[in-house]
Amino acid sequence: MKSLLIKNAHIVTATDQYEADIYVENETIHAIGKDLCASSSAAKAATQVIDAKGAYVFPGGIDAHTHMDLPFMGTSSSDDFESGTLAGLHGGTTTIIDFAIQTQGSSLNAALNQWHEKADGKSVGDYAFHMAVTDFNPKTRAEIKEIVEKKGISSFKVFMAYKGALMVDDRQIVELMEEVKKVGGMVIAHCENGDVVDHLIAENKAAGNTAPKYHVLSRPAVAEAEASGRFMDIAHVGKHPLYIVHMTCAEALDRVRENAKRDQKVFVETCVQYLVLDESVYFQEGFEGSKYVMSPPLRKKKDQDALWAGLKQGLVHTVATDHCPFCMEQKKMGLNDFSKIPNGAPGVEHRMELMFSEGVLKNRISLQKFVDVTSTAPARIFGLFPRKGTIAVGSDADLVIFDPKESHTLSVKSHHMKCDYSAYEGWKITGRVKTTILRGTVAVDQGKALVGKGFGKYLSRAGSGQNVE
Ligand code: URP
Ligand code: ZN
Ligand code: ZN
After folding, report:
1. pTM confidence score
2. Residue among 50, 10, 15 nearest 389 (CA)
3. Hey, whose CA ends up nearest to atom 4 of ligand 1?
4. Average pLDDT, consecutive stretches of 10 residues, N- to C-terminus, the chain (469 residues)
5. Distance of CA 372 from the midpoint of ligand 3 (Å)
6. Of 2.60.120.10, 2.130.10.10, 2.30.40.10, 2.30.29.80, which CATH number belongs to 3-58+394-404+426-449?
């Protein structure tokens, strides 16, 4: 039997912090306590011992929004499940929830099979899927129960933008909600008013506006706020729980605040880039801004402040990345037309360290909130808790040993994501992942990967949005 003792850990959970040892047998945490060697002969005989003195020990990060190997806008995101999840492990993310996206005219099961082919036997980190429904019809409706009860997926995403490829209408949303509710699942949404966005894109193109900055100018905050409000209203009609992905702006958050007055279960995700980057990057000379073309786009500094406050106030529950990298050659598909720049940016590797450096060390969030939004809340909301998302006896031994003092510089030269630029080039941050442990195995130590292709396990999930406030 494989066993691991982590001594002198400063354990941080979403509710506590304390000094203790952690004893792991095989993949699971077996004991937590002071000086375990004195009280447990098994701990004393552990086959591997790590001294974590001076470091924090966090539960493994959960990134609830990634797109590995995603066919999108005429190309595919540049990280596959192997490279993307390994990059995540380097940055303390042990689990991702990716999106299996239905092709319009095809079935949900066909999409799910495709995503299993992409991930099974390849993913280095643990992974689960959300199902993205792009074509809700009687055939799709008939698949929902099986997807939840047999395939381990309890969250169904809709896109309110990207008309002609991914977007669904309101009738499809309300009917999907009705079906999903019957089997204890939740509908989640990309909220932008797709028709307004398409109108503004067409207007800019007609005026001969081609540069990357027209991406943000075609996707205003009001279009996001409108769709966010509409999504919440639709869900309120049937008393459905809901989750809004990648919220970016104060205007959308104000709709959430408004809805908090009525009895409605609303979960909100933002992504680290919306907290730390702003729209000024789109207005740089030349094609530089293409690196940040993502949807919704980066917003203003006041929106960053609103999102940080939203995290503190409990209106924003999770921080993901929407990791969807494209290399510069791919971005250049939109060199002469901003609307053809593939949407998405790299980030899965840096979420935990950025949230610590920019959030905890700048007193914007507490250590407990940091753990909650990067790990515990996504686990609870998406039916992975308590297997994932905490440090407790019986939980998977997914642990991050983190040096809170070490400074380092983010760069394309040192990151592990398969992308030929960094969205954070030259950023100096404090706090670094020293060791990432996945199910009791040291996966990455001091920047060295110790596990590889196929180490990750598929996680079946039940009950998204259930039994969680
Ligand atoms: O720009 C983005 N976000 N690309 C990925 C697809 C999506 O909208 O989440
Ligand atoms: Zn989206
Ligand atoms: Zn996305």
Report:
1. 0.98
2. 15
3. 344
4. 97 98 98 96 96 98 98 97 98 98 97 98 98 97 97 98 97 97 96 98 98 98 98 96 98 95 94 98 97 98 98 98 98 98 98 98 98 98 97 98 98 98 98 98 98 98 79
5. 21
6. 2.30.40.10
